[in-house]
Amino acid sequence: MSRTPKMILLTLAVSAALVGCGKNEAPATDSAASTATPTAAAPAATEFKLDESKLPAYNAFHPSDLDKSLDACTAFGDYVNSKWLAANEIPGDRTSWGAFTILDERSVAVQHQLAEQVAAVKNPTGIEKIVGDFWATGMDEAKINAQGIEPIKADLAAIDALQDKDAIANYLRTSAAKGENVLFGFGPEADFKNSSQNIAYASQGGLGLPDTTYYTDAKNADKLKAYQAHVAKVLELSGATAEDAAKQAADVVKFETRLAKASKSSEQLSRDVSLYYNPVSVADADKLTPNFSWTEFFKAQGIAAPEKFSLAIPSFHQEVSKALGDTDPSVWRSYLRFRTIDGASPYLSDAFADQNFQFYGKTLNGQKEMKPRWKRVLGTIENDAGEAFGQLYVKVAFSPESKAKMEELVKNLAASLKERIQGLTWMSDETKAKAIAKWETFTPKIGYPDKWRDWSGLTTGRDSYFGNVRAANEFNYKFALSKIGKPVDKTEWGMTPQTVNAYYNPLQNEIVFPAAILQPPFFDPKADDALNYGGIGAVIGHEMTHGYDDQGSRFGPTGNFENWWSEADTKNFSGLTGKLVNQFDGYKVGDTAVNGKLTLGENIADLGGLATAYDALQKASAGKDDPMVDGLSRDQRFFFNWATVWRTKYTPENAAVRLKTDPHAPAAFRAMGAPSNLPTFAKAFECKPGSPMVRAGDKQVVIW
Questions:
Q1: Could you give the CA distance from residue 382 to residue 403 in angstroms, rounded to a whole number?
Q2: Pfam families, from UniProt (predicted)?
Q3: Given a cut of 80, is residue 170 above it in pLDDT?
Q4: What is the pTM of this model?
């Protein structure tokens, strides 16, 4: 649960993900290096087996789910999901519960069995050693508690010695070189103007709360106050007196508020991808931030000064430079001390881990119980060595049959999307031709990478959990830096195989479907077409449509950031997307309206994806009798499974966070938002004109 800024700018891919699930990041802290020998790159050699009887059951659609006392044409999501939602409570260690999280629970259960087996391997090598070392040390609660704050004492001593701006700037550079940059994100990403080549990107960061509005909006004053109390408590746990901790906490919150005012909000970042791209020379960057030398920063990272790099959100970096010059070093020390301890807390003794949960889990998101240690350790492995673990996961949890069926579905969805583009009435033939050119370069990735990452050089051992975390953090950072200035490796993935999600990466024009999502209710190779097209088919369509949402459409066939639209078509597109913004602005969670602008990209993808999946189902079913399974038509089952995918409930606190920061609309509105715009839905359920689930005339939205 570290608050460290993202090291690698996969923000674009994640913002175009199906659910955008966040991952915990490695801590921004250091410790003594492990004395173990480097891990070899050998693949997993041991045979592992699953006990299926110990895995959670799938949550698939069943006709008994339907609440026949309700009307499908009035509130479709409730019609399909209300009985299930009423009968199922959110587990104490979760902040939401539904189709995605249940499948995630199953993935975690698979990983649990694997981790225990891996840790028991004698004389392990390669990825088995990495996973086994993390598991064994992470589960050694007694040793972790005995170490207390010891693993980061050297870091805190280094911070305490900072007396002036030059020393602070040097600390920021040198700590970043170990993958411990608490202030801003830095790493490789494809050049917006030449997507085949990686360049360095520096982004904003440095905040402990989810969004800038937590610092600037009076409505969030209670959360800001609770955060300040958390900062004070963390500092007290590190040895500060209550009085001194309170003073430092006030300084930290004031400092972060200053950074927040110079930063962009979640809404701004999600709806203007150009904010990430601000190419400058190192010399010009130095002029922009006179108190923070980028020349020295690149040198400290071991990177030759590039011809250009992207200094994203320059106002943020300018404010950091100003703060180096006008802020008392004691405030900087308080800030760096807190961020270091807070980032390390999940991997330290129970007192620190519990305080971390009390604020970020309980206060901020309404989570009732801390996850058991085994789940937290698996989360750490996922964050720090997830792809290594993925090699083990796919051997026991993903079948060749599933991959083959998925490849067929992708082809069918692609064909239907092409026909929909060709049939558009609001777009000119000239722009259509360019849209088709982009369609022709879509690259699908299914299940797991064709080429696994090399983990040789990562040093892990059985002495220190935090030492393993720190070692992986530095290893991953250096791996990322090695990409800068080199061609993009198009075989790489931005998610691990065990992730229950999918994404579209506009810079590579690729759609990616990890193995873990290819299970019910999304996908079942043994299920009928209606369910698969309403589940994973709509997910495939969703990710493809991201290539044409309000931000994905700003990238061309090769992934370059370019305008391939005519002025008239841009105007038409803006008018259509504006209608979708208005539709979702009209939905409310309690008294709080959904932010139609923040969620626009995902809503475009849902609408286009569901329509495309429906068309593909009709083509796949052409000439076949409707099987009328359980008395339900093929089309009805298609829409029922779409709604089943979105059966989710949230804690009130988590719902509030999502409404401010999540580019995805609440699940209940995703279940009904897209279908209400499709005449095929109204026909399937014989909905009368004027029904809430029938949007007609100017209210109906048809984009892709």
A1: 23
A2: Peptidase_M13, Peptidase_M13_N
A3: yes
A4: 0.93
d(CA 610, CA 80): 17
- The answer to whether residues 381 and 135 touch, using CB atoms and an 8 Å cutoff, is yes
Q: Are 7 and 186 in contact (CB under 8 A)?
A: yes
Note the pLDDT tens digit of each residue in 648-684.
999 999 999 999 999 999 999 999 999 999 999 999 9
pLDDT digits (tens, 9 = 90+) for 207-236: 999 999 999 999 999 999 999 999 999 999
447 strand-pairing partners: 514
Cα 382 to Cα 208, 255, 330, 470: the distances in Å are 22, 32, 36, 14
Q: What are the structure tokens assigned to 387, written together?
A: 């792809």
Instruction: List the structure tokens of 286.
Output: 């130095």
Rounded CA-CA distance 126/325 in Å is 47
Do 35 and 497 contact (CB within 8 A), yes or no? no
Structure tokens at 229: 């109390």
Provide the residue count of the chain.
Answer: 704
Determine the residue type at 529: D
How far is Cα 239 from Cα 153, in angstroms, rounded to an integer?
11
C-beta separation of 310 from 200 below 8 A? yes
- Per-residue pLDDT averaged across 273-294, rounded? 98
Which residues, 6 or more positions from 446, have their beta carbon under 8 angstroms from its beta carbon? 403, 406, 407, 410, 513, 518
The answer to whether 204 touches 313, Cβ cutoff 8 Å, is yes
What single string gives the DSSP state of each residue in 190-253? EETTEEEEEEEEE-----SSSSTHHHH-GGGHHHHHHHHHHHHHHHHHTT--HHHHHHHHHHHH
Determine the distance from the C-alpha atom of residue 694 to the mean position of all C-alpha atoms in its chain, rounded to a whole number. 33
| Structure tokens, 421 | 């583009």
> Is the backbone of residue 313 left (phi > 0), alpha (psi -120 to 50) or beta?
left
- In one letter, which amino acid is 25? E
Whole-number Å distance between alpha carbons of 57 and 302: 49
**pLDDT one-digit tens code per residue, 378-405:** 999 999 999 999 999 999 999 888 999 9
